Amino acid sequence: MQLTKHTDFAFKALIYLGSMKQELATIQQIADSFQIPKSHLMKVINTLSNHGFVEAVRGKNGGIKLGLAADTISLKDVVVLMEKTLDPFDCVGQDCVILSRCKLKQLFQDAQTSYLHFLDGYHLADIIDKPTAKILHFQ
Q1: Count: domains in the chain
Q2: What is the CATH number of the domain that holds 60?
Q3: Which of 65, 99, 110, 124 is most buried as measured by Cβ atoms within 10 A of its Cβ?
Q4: What's 67's DSSP letter?
């Protein structure tokens, strides 16, 4: 399964925020650290914020931080939130001669269910370590 850039950016932002020692970060800091477009990251942060994964603090000294503890943010929940569709195939409207008998779609759906179940066993805290924090925050 290939994830979209938005999901990739979401994980990068969450890893950055989860590995911080300071209280708040800016979107620009995250964008600079990963060399990703700030405009794309802003959309991702907005989605994460609207669903409680990230908390935005407004004002002159504002910024963003994790909205939940890193050990409660399931990797599966991030994927499900950020991906527009999790269907491995879109057979609707296809002119396929075996559409009514095809077993391929169900097989891939079963594989995806297993994939998501696997991710559900891991949390943001599981993928953050001191060497990663050191790279991101020069600590």
Answers
A1: 1
A2: 1.10.10.10
A3: 124
A4: S
